[in-house]
Write a structure and sequence with these properties.
The protein is mostly helical. It has seven helices and no strands.
């Protein structure tokens, strides 16, 4: 049930129906709050969705606050030896985009650099576990090359 509601949040948001997305998100958050401990990685997704919605309605400061919360939840989970590491590059890039909207260029550059570093680590893991010629490794290498050709080799 929660998964279906979470999919509705994303669908409503992409349709530009921010009010409906916010309602569905509130329902998902209420259910998760009853079922999961505070700080669970699922709340990173809630904060990330809230960030998207705030940005969509033009409240960039609130979007950054929610993006910061998403990063904090994720980093806390990772530092505790729990899940979340694969999500870090994307969450950092999303926050960097918001920082650019606010002309916080140094913070955006730092987040983008951290995201690239995490992505390089992921590429190394793909090479080690799947090999250089595996389609997932090739796709990841191409993505990194598109951003910074000198770093993908």
């Amino acid at each position: 049930m929660v998964v279906n509601q979470a999919m509705l949040v994303s669908t409503y948001r992409k349709q530009g129906r921010a009010d409906r997305a916010a309602e569905a998100l509130a329902q998902v958050e209420a259910r998760l709050s009853r079922a999961l401990p505070h700080g669970h990685i699922a709340f990173m997704a809630i904060s990330s969705h809230r960030s998207f919605l705030a940005r969509q309605r033009g409240d960039v400061r609130a979007a950054l606050a929610y993006a910061n919360k998403a990063v904090q939840i994720l980093e806390t989970s990772i530092n505790a030896g729990k899940q979340g590491k694969p999500h870090l590059p994307l969450v950092l890039v999303r926050r960097a985009d918001i920082e650019l909207d606010l002309h916080e260029n140094d913070a955006a550059a730092a987040d983008a650099h951290a995201a690239r570093s995490e992505f390089r680590t992921a590429l190394d893991h793909l090479r080690d576990s799947l090999g250089d010629d595996h389609p997932d490794t090739v796709r990841a290498r191409r993505l990194l090359e598109a951003d910074r050709p000198d770093e993908a080799r």
